[in-house]
Amino acid sequence: MAQGITPEKLIKPPSQGTGMYKGDSNIDDRFGADKPSEEFAQYSDPLREIPDDLEVDAEKLITDTKVKEVLHQLNTELVALEIVKERISEIAHLLLIDRLRRSIGLEAEAPTLHMSFTGNPGTGKTTVARKMGQILWKLGYIRKGHVVTASRDDLVGQYVGHTAPKTREVIKRAMGGVLFIDEAYNIYRLDNERDYGQETVEMLLEVMENDRQDLVVIMAGYRDKMDRFFSDVPGISSRIAHHVDFPDYTAEELLDIGRMIMEQQRYQFSSDAEKAFQEYLQIRLTRPHFANGRSVRNALDRTRMRQAIRLYDAVEKGRKLTKKDLVTIEAEDILASRVFDDLHALELPSGNGEAKGKSKPRAKAGASKAKK
Amino acid sequence: MATSTGLIIRQGTFSTLPELTDDEIRAQIQYGIDNGWAVSIEYSDDPHPRNTYWDMWGMPMFDLKDAAGGLYEVNKCREAFPNSYVKVSLYNPKLTKQTIGLQFMVQRPKHEPGFRLVRSEGPHRRIFYTMEPYAAEKPHGDRYED
């Protein structure tokens, strides 16, 4: 230790009135989101005292917050899902008006934006949830716009005392953005009293209530299971302001989705292929385990594989490929699907017997090739 | 014992400023996160300036995106140890740095009794001075009860 320094020098002189004591920190500042701008701070009762005809600069704010951009993006990127778009547009407008109110000193508590997305498999719940981060960020509701996806594994611990830190870790990581809990009904298991899911649920409830400004929680899951989850855990349903039910897609909407996926991957349907795909969807719709958008995506993935085999065979036969070959999906790629096989086996009427006849050997050739 | 001197411990960045509000703490943590620094919370009831080994409140948070998570832990720590010193450390993990980038106190006990000057006589009648916090007379854990 340095000997030249006297302890008197180490101790700083008493501070008087510098506000170093705890009592000085204003509790109201904690999470104190938006304060009215200073020029209005003089009004103790803004509702009465701010003149009624005070003008607000709405146009500027609308361009600033990109509301239009967000809504446009939604419309172009999502097929159908009118109810979802409607909800988001409601939220967007509310947030906008809230900001306007705040700009002239009227208080506006941040609305609760926790959501639950319910619907059948493949209806776009996860896709929309992932987009919500960006949307809410553009609207200025959350500060960062990242989406943290969590499932039961990430939240619920294995032994006593393991759950709380685990859940807290995830919650902290998601702060400033969106916490997306997929298959949320898995968290809580009613049949097992000693399950630690209860602890997670309690922590989530607390955070959803107290840290609303910092975190948006989106829960998604299948309709019936989520309904059971909500009835098993009272209090969670009422903390979620937006219950959005995703409807199943119609055949046309599915076709639109298919077209969009193809476009994103730089493929094209030939006109025959489009007809065939339409037919394919009609049949698939009636089958069990049909998973809407997901089934469309899977079907198209398989179609691409069949196209690849068809092109490979063509090259082996000495044909020259062009760019057009590479981007075009032909009807036979679709008609080789097993869905049509079953149809044939059941001897149901089909409008495309010829094409199927041709496609049959192709499918077999593909299979044998794959084995090699 | 002597009456309260009004002395308080000051250490870390901003040590001469008035106590930071939560919004200010949040802004500082955000600054650290934006620089890619890890946030950690530490607490202690040993006010000696040479006490470098504080207890950690949870793990350092390397994966925060937003300061709200840091402030959340600060508040949890304040709740659990309402009468301890609490500080936030922002660790810069960059190669060649790997050190604390910013560290500041966010809570102190309500009453700090101060320090006693301790003299001890060495060889040749030399006097060695050191100081000892009055609070440290009591065992760890009982030091700052109201």
Explain what this protein looks like in three dimensions.
The complex is a heterodimer of chains A (372) and B (146). Chain A is of the alpha/beta class. Chain A has 2 domains: 48-246, Rossmann fold (3-Layer(aba) Sandwich), CATH 3.40.50; 251-371, Helicase, Ruva Protein, domain 3, CATH 1.10.8. Helix content of chain A is 53%, strand content 8%. Chain A has 18 helices and 7 strands. Chain A has helices spanning 7-10, 46-49, 58-65, 67-77, 82-103, 125-138, 152-155, 163-174, 197-210, 223-232, 236-239, 251-264, 271-286, 292-316, 323-327, 331-335, 338-345, 353-371, and strands at 115-119, 147-150, 178-182, 216-221, 242-246, 268-269, 328-329. A 5-stranded parallel β-sheet of chain A has the order 2-3-4-1-5, sandwiched between helices. The longest helix of chain A is centred in the C-terminal third of the chain and has 25 residues, at 292-316. Mean pLDDT of chain A is 78; it is low at 1-34 and 347-372. With 146 residues, chain B is α+β, with helices and mostly antiparallel strands. Chain B has a domain at 22-110: 2-Layer Sandwich (Ribulose 1,5 Bisphosphate Carboxylase/Oxygenase). Chain B is 18% helix and 31% strand. Chain B contains 2 helices and 6 strands; from the N terminus they run αββαββββ. Chain B has helices at residues 22-34, 67-80; strands at residues 38-44, 55-61, 85-92, 99-107, 115-121, 127-133. In chain B, the strands form 2 sheets. In chain B, strands 2-1-3-4 form a 4-stranded antiparallel β-sheet, with helices on one face. In chain B, strands 5-6 form a two-stranded antiparallel ribbon. In chain B, helix 1 (22-34) crosses helix 2 (67-80). Chain B is globular, with a radius of gyration of 17 Å. The mean pLDDT of chain B is 90. Classes of the chains: A alpha/beta (372), B alpha+beta (146). The interface between A and B is large, with 37 and 35 residues.
